[in-house]
Amino acid sequence: MKLKQLEGLLGDLQQFSNPKIELEQYPTGPHIASRMLYTAENSFGDVSDKVVADFGCGCGTLGIAATLLGAEHVVGIDVDAQSLEVASLNAEELEVQMNFVQCDIKNLQFRGLTIDTVVMNPPFGTRKKGADMVFLSSALKVASQAVYSLHKTSTRDHIKRAALRDFNASTAEVLCELIYDVPQLYKFHKKREVDIAVDLWRFVPKRAQ
Ligand SMILES: C[S@@+](CC[C@H](N)C(=O)[O-])C[C@H]1O[C@@H](n2cnc3c(N)ncnc32)[C@H](O)[C@@H]1O
To answer: Does domain 3-208 have CATH number 3.30.70.100?
Structure first.
């Protein structure tokens, strides 16, 4: 599938209608989401024929992009039941197969299921300190091949240190820096959109070597 076609399909997905601020529910826009998954597939071969998990899947954008790029199996995980309902409708609408699990990432147990690649746009940890780190640590525990994740550029050194020193990553590479438009979902946002610089990371867990 061409990049523009993927972006177009993701642009039609329903997003959070009543976002929960404490869960940092803001969607990954189609421009960033399509490029994130397209890079994972076309530069690294981490999507097609792989088992992919979308951590904090929200309305399913990243996981659906993985199915559209030929993943063998995709599971979307989120703590919020309402988001999972929307994600399930989005998958149905596009006629793609995806499984959904309601679970807090900190309680995730993946006994017996091999996940090749984790894709995620985790909470940045602005509402609940350390939320981003819980996602990263968990992703690097379950992925056998690679983890793709978005993190605020201001946290770059911290992310790299934690991934390599504490979370079992053998490599931690920033693939590109992006401008993330957080739409005005919450009353405390004064402007229509808040631009945040984010890094697209690729981590490789030690056991993948
Ligand atoms: C920034 S949004 C990203 C949503 C979606 N992945 C996307 O890219 O559009 C973060 C998501 O993580 C979910 N989330 C937050 N804390 C969580 C937790 N502890 N366990 C599981 N999901 C969580 C939220 O409900 C939300 O859907």
So the answer is: no
120-167 per-position pLDDT tens digit: 999 998 888 999 999 999 999 999 999 999 999 999 999 999 999 999
d(C-alpha 177, C-alpha 199), whole Å: 4
Q: Please report, for the chain, the start and end positions of each structural domain, with discontinuous segments joined by +.
A: 3-208
* 130-135: long-range pairs with CB below 8 Å, 24+: 131/24, 132/159, 133/162, 134/105, 134/106, 135/55, 135/56, 135/105
* pTM of the predicted protein model: 0.95
Q: Check if 23 has its Cβ closer than 6 Å to any atom of ligand 1.
A: yes
**With a 6 A CB cut-off, is 132 part of the ligand 1 pocket?**
no
**Tokens at residue 87, please?**
């994600």
